Amino acid sequence: MLQDSIDTTLFSSSPPEVLEEVKREGRIRALPPGEILFAEGQQDADIFVVLAGEVRLFRRSDKDEELLAVHRRGEFVGEISLLSGGPATATARTVGTARVLQLRVDTLRRMVADNTPLAKFVLQTLVARRQDVEAQIRQQEKLAALGRMAASLAHELNNPAAAARRAAEQLREECLSAQQRALAQDRRLTESQRKALMELLQAVRVAPLQTMDAMARSDLEDDLLEWLGDHGMRQAYSRASIFVSSGLDLPHLEELGATLEGPALQAGLGWLENTLSLAQLADVVEASTERITSLISSVRQYTYMDPDALQEVDVHSGLEATLAMFTHRLRGAVTVTRDYDTSLPKLWAHGGELTQVWTNLIENALDSMKDRGSLQVSTCRRGDEVHVEISDDGPGIPPEVQARIWEPFFTTKPQGQGTGLGLDIALRIIERRHGGRLRLLVSKPGETRFRVELPLKPELPH
Known about the structure:
Elements: H1 2-5, H2 16-25, E1 27-31, E2 36-38, E3 47-52, E4 55-60, E5 65-71, E6 76-77, H3 79-84, E7 91-94, E8 98-103, H4 105-114, H5 117-184, H6 191-206, H7 214-230, H8 237-245, H9 250-257, H10 263-303, E9 311-313, H11 315-325, H12 327-330, E10 333-339, E11 347-349, H13 351-369, E12 372-382, E13 385-392, H14 422-433, E14 437-444, E15 447-455
Parallel strand pairs: 10-12
Antiparallel strand pairs: 1-8, 2-7, 3-6, 3-8, 4-5, 4-7, 9-11, 12-13, 13-15, 14-15
Helix pairs in contact: 4-5, 5-10, 6-10, 7-8, 8-10, 10-11, 11-13, 13-14
């Protein structure tokens, strides 16, 4: 019987007479996988409430069908055409087996005219859905504006950044050439001594720099300072620092000291210091311009210039682009730990919308930690899904409000610091737009962990 087939918790917030009207007017349907509830362009499509399973909305595009939304237990499907009075704007299709409650559109119109309890309940639900849609539209408009700004900035900054990078490379070579000409004219040095200096310079430039921690660097600087002091050079702190930064170590100096001595050693080390210092300044200019280019690329990745289209998305590039947007908050007392599965394939998704999800989750984590602590970002593959976990070691979400974090406009942040829409928007993007899941795995003092589960490719009809 219909009365025994409806989970009353679906209507727990409504008056008892609503459930009675549902039982009287609704029709329970058990549907197989791939069943069409209504088709795009269909007039007077009925309204459905999902009781179990999943219903997805698709819209025809030039090459394929685009996934618009995913509806699960307790959600209405088909209300847009009722509100607009026009044909259905999408096709509704079950994924797997499903159970739905069908309300015929002419019956619902009659109930609206009679102002029945069920009609009031449905209309209230539709108004809430409209508010959700408007919130999502506002976010998409912001993203589109950011995309246009990013495109303009990329165009304006790319050319001067590339020019500065080429100029830095030329500056390094011109400085080296000038230093070589100056060395050739220095009569304090013999030909063999000048040759020894050039060979040492070439060896330092070719050899890769060794990575060392602060303690090892300090020890090496002390060794060089002691050697320089033993050879008559006092107050040589800056010289020792430049030598260490350039990859020069104690064996290099001892080898040079075997060829140069006295005034010649003083002149040779002065020339070497100046040459390496100029090269380091050129490196700083080049690194700075490369950073500008990298930031432009990050903004492009972050905005995804065509946010409405499904595209192949590199999850790691999107995460890194989002982290780059938070560089000003990460460079202080936040330690970022990455655990990426580098074998992950690209997935089909709305790239710009995924960056909204990463932004909301990372920003919430940083806010919780007050920009001090540990942020972990990890990825892995589970079957045909990609899992992304973002966690922090902040104080956690109080247990009494964890069930409410997905509610629109609910926030645990102080007044004026949060809209309460971040997690709601992220949830709708993951579940309705991508057919995935967003879960809070754990939240306690010292650990809060969210997991995003995304299909590699949305399940589109054949």
